[in-house]
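ok so for the tutorial part 2 we go from a plain amino acid sequence to predicted structure tokens. step 1 is just haveing the sequence, like this:
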Amino acid sequence: MIQLHYWPTPNGHKITLLLEEAGLDYSLHPVDITAGEQFRAEFLAISPNNRIPAIVDTAPADGGAPIALFESGAILEYLADKSGRFLPRTARERSQVLQWLYWQVGGLGPMAGQNHHFGTYAPEKIPYAIDRYVRETARLYGVLDKQLGQHEFVAGADYSIADMASYPWIVPHQRQGQDLADFPHLKRWFEAIAARPATQRAYARAEGLSAQNAVGSAAANKVLFGQGGKPG
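step 2 — the prediction. this is what the tokens look like for a chain of 232 residues:
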């Protein structure tokens, strides 16, 4: 059993995409990040960076004690290896998937996240910051579009964790100031993944989860963006 500690953000959706595709047995443990639940001691014990998602594998392959993991990229890699799917074993193919996974974790996610922050949540609208991150998001969309013009999926001919990592960050493309019509190969890929039954099941799991403090409210923003060296 995989215990998934989760909130319906792009990084959270990455993990439900894989769990649904791989058919792994899992339970969902909501962590309301707008209410500060990510700072609870029991969550910090498995995710010391106070960020979702995190998992606990109660039945690891070695038969030993449960394994806890945080960081979405590490979780995707671990679960793909556990299931034997969506991450090739051979070095050449595996390296293709992992480099695009790390591209998303180190590039697309952080830049789109800053796009969301300055364009939507920041109390002061700073034109330079908004323009900088909208442009950088567009550049990264262009990188992905070029790759998808050469391959059916992000890392080649097969659907992989590289696709699952990137897709949730393309879902809010309109909020990021992007028009998928400008990226036809990306648009083709996006629509194909959206139509997958496992994608639809994964996003359906998020339905009904709501926060007492909506993201963007003063109370939620204080929790999400007001952290210094010591949370709280």
